[in-house]
Design brief:
The chain is an alpha/beta fold. It has helices spanning 15-26, 33-41, 44-69, 86-94, 104-111, 124-142, 154-172, and strands spanning 5-8, 29-32, 74-77, 96-101, 145-148. It has seven helices and five strands.
């Protein structure tokens, strides 16, 4: 593998679990930008409480840039809002970016009672739909390929991404695994 694979999509899509599986199959590092922010700066809820969403977005952008700047290729799972920053979108459009497409029916049970998601305060399901609607065009704009994450196991989704990545490699000649 000679290039990073970025995973984008709304919260609770499965970017982290699919990313771990994909990285293991490729034998490369897995980086979760939300986990990187938490490890360096504390919980997302605490970051939001102290500095609001702008503070979190700045840390998220920093984590994304740091992950992409590593000399070794990796599978990088982004936070759901990473596509909000223009600089982030430029980075994602320049790379091999996979949009894990989903819907409320698929993620509803994952977010209904999930604590620690400041953007879902109030009615989490309604908030998820509002957030997704506002971001969907950015996901599509940044994606090299879209994978339907509504069906299939984690292993099947990782295999679908790997297949698409290898097909692209065979036509561009620049990516190896």
């Amino acid at each position: 593998m000679s290039a990073d694979i970025f995973l984008i999509g709304p919260m609770a899509t499965g970017k982290s679990v699919v990313g771990r599986q994909l990285a293991a199959r490729l034998g490369v590092a897995f980086i979760d930008t939300d986990a990187e922010v938490i490890a360096s700066h504390g919980s997302i809820a605490d970051i939001f409480a102290a500095g609001g969403e702008p503070a979190f977005r700045a840390l998220e952008a920093e984590a994304l840039r740091a992950a992409a700047a590593r000399p070794e290729p990796a599978v990088i799972a982004t936070g759901g809002g990473a596509v909000l920053g223009e600089g982030n979108r430029e980075l994602l459009r320049a790379g091999y970016t996979v949009y894990l497409e989903t819907d409320l029916e698929t993620v509803g049970s994952r977010i209904a009672g999930a604590p620690g998601r400041p953007l879902l305060e109030g009615n989490p399901l309604d908030r998820w739909v509002q957030i997704f609607t506002a971001r969907e065009a950015h996901y599509r704009e940044c994606a090299t390929v879209t994978v339907d994450a509504r069906t299939g196991t984690v292993a099947e989704l990782a295999e679908n991404i790997l297949g698409a990545y290898r097909r692209r490699a065979s036509t561009t000649g620049g990516i190896t695994t």
